[in-house]
From TrEMBL:
Subcellular location: Mitochondrion outer membrane
Protein name: Non-selective voltage-gated ion channel VDAC2
Keyword terms, alphabetized: Acetylation, Ion transport, Membrane, Mitochondrion, Mitochondrion outer membrane, NAD, Nucleotide-binding, Porin, Transmembrane, Transmembrane beta strand, Transport
Annotated function: Non-selective voltage-gated ion channel that mediates the transport of anions and cations through the mitochondrion outer membrane and plasma membrane. The channel adopts an open conformation at zero mV and a closed conformation at both positive and negative potentials. There are two populations of channels; the main that functions in a lower open-state conductance with lower ion selectivity, that switch, in a voltage-dependent manner, from the open to a low-conducting 'closed' state and the other that has a normal ion selectivity in the typical high conductance, 'open' state. Catalyzes the scrambling of phospholipids across the outer mitochondrial membrane; the mechanism is unrelated to channel activity and is capable of translocating both anionic and zwitterionic phospholipids.
Annotated CDD domains: Porin3_VDAC (cd07306)
Record-level Gene Ontology MF annotations: nucleotide binding; porin activity; voltage-gated monoatomic anion channel activity
Pfam families associated with the record: Porin_3 (PF01459)
Organism: Capra hircus
Record note on quaternary structure: Monomer, homodimer and higher order oligomers; formation of higher order structures is necessary for scramblase activity. Interacts with ARMC12 in a TBC1D21-dependent manner. Interacts with KLC3. Interacts with SPATA33. Interacts with PPP3CC in a SPATA33-dependent manner.
Superkingdom, natural source: Eukaryota
Family: Belongs to the eukaryotic mitochondrial porin family.
GO cellular component, as recorded: mitochondrial outer membrane; pore complex
Reactions the enzyme catalyzes: chloride(in) = chloride(out); a 1,2-diacyl-sn-glycero-3-phospho-(1D-myo-inositol)(in) = a 1,2-diacyl-sn-glycero-3-phospho-(1D-myo-inositol)(out); a 1,2-diacyl-sn-glycero-3-phospho-L-serine(in) = a 1,2-diacyl-sn-glycero-3-phospho-L-serine(out); a 1,2-diacyl-sn-glycero-3-phosphocholine(in) = a 1,2-diacyl-sn-glycero-3-phosphocholine(out)
């Protein structure tokens, strides 16, 4: 297997991080439904290997415009990545990451932000360890009141996945997040269930019906309430440059339908159908 110094890309058969459990199902519901939002993303790379990424968005309802600029340089020989960030809120960020140098599969990241207008500073140390059948993560957020520790672990075996996520607030000396998840994943099918803080129960199913059609079902319920959230979504790829997405959400007794179609290419042609309620049957 090639080391990081020989090749920046290091494919391994490892389970996803806890945050990415059920991601395939969520993407069918979330991607492409940014109604009232115009967004532009541009990426380029210089001859010296520096990557530039810029993103801008405009909310047609409020007229608010936001933008970000990011530069990234990878020193593959030493497994180092340097990232500088800036956004229109005038917040500056610096990130330094080192991967596969201390041991194979270990990544350490130091992330800082600074706002010149307010003088606010923040710092975070991130660590992750990825090997076959295991994906571990531990982040520490530094705060004047006391650091917050975020931890997660995902274990996988023959398609089955089990994960745990927690947050410990040292200022309050208690767990502020306590989540569990169990799932099953194959090439064209994914099942995900989760329990958040012992009060919110959820599940999702992702199915790739055929090469051009992806479907997703989502269900959630919060204890102590009679509100059950249910949704079904599908995305159909008309051709390599065009697709159509539809989703139906049920929030309590209200049904909402969203649909979107789009064509990528030199000229973007989109049509959207914003949310509307279905009459009761």
């Amino acid at each position: 297997m090639a080391t990081y110094g020989q090749n920046c890309a290091r494919p391994m058969c490892i389970p996803p991080s806890y945050a990415d459990l059920g991601k395939a199902a969520r993407d069918i519901f979330n991607k492409g439904f940014g109604f009232g939002l115009v967004k532009l993303d541009v990426k380029t790379k210089s001859c010296s290997g520096v990557e530039f990424s810029t993103s801008g968005s405009s909310n047609t309802d409020t007229g608010k415009v936001t933008g970000t600029l990011e530069t990234k340089y990878k020193w593959c020989e030493y497994g180092l990545t340097f990232t500088e960030k800036w956004n229109t809120d005038n917040t500056l960020g610096t990130e330094i990451a080192i991967e596969d140098q201390i041991c194979q599969g270990l990544k350490l990241t130091f992330d800082t932000t600074f706002s010149p207008n307010t003088g606010k500073k923040s710092g975070k140390i991130k660590s992750s360890y990825k090997r076959e059948c295991i994906n571990l993560g531990c982040d520490v957020d530094f705060d004047f009141a006391g650091p917050a520790i975020h931890g997660s672990a995902v274990f996988g075996y023959e398609g089955w996945l089990a994960g745990y996520q927690m947050t410990f607030d040292s200022a309050k000396s208690k767990l502020t997040r306590n989540n569990f998840a169990v799932g099953y994943r194959t090439g064209d099918f994914q099942l995900h269930t989760n329990v958040n803080d012992g009060t919110e129960f959820g599940g999702s199913i992702y199915q790739k019906v055929c090469e051009d059609l992806d479907t997703s079902v989502n269900l959630a319920w919060t204890s102590g309430t009679n509100c059950t959230r249910f949704g079904i979504a599908a995305k159909y790829q008309l051709d390599p440059t065009a697709s159509i997405s539809v989703k139906k959400l049920q929030l309590g007794e209200e049904d909402l339908v969203h649909c979107k179609g789009g064509k990528k290419g030199g000229v973007v042609q989109d049509w959207t159908c914003k949310a509307f309620s279905l009459p009761p049957v």
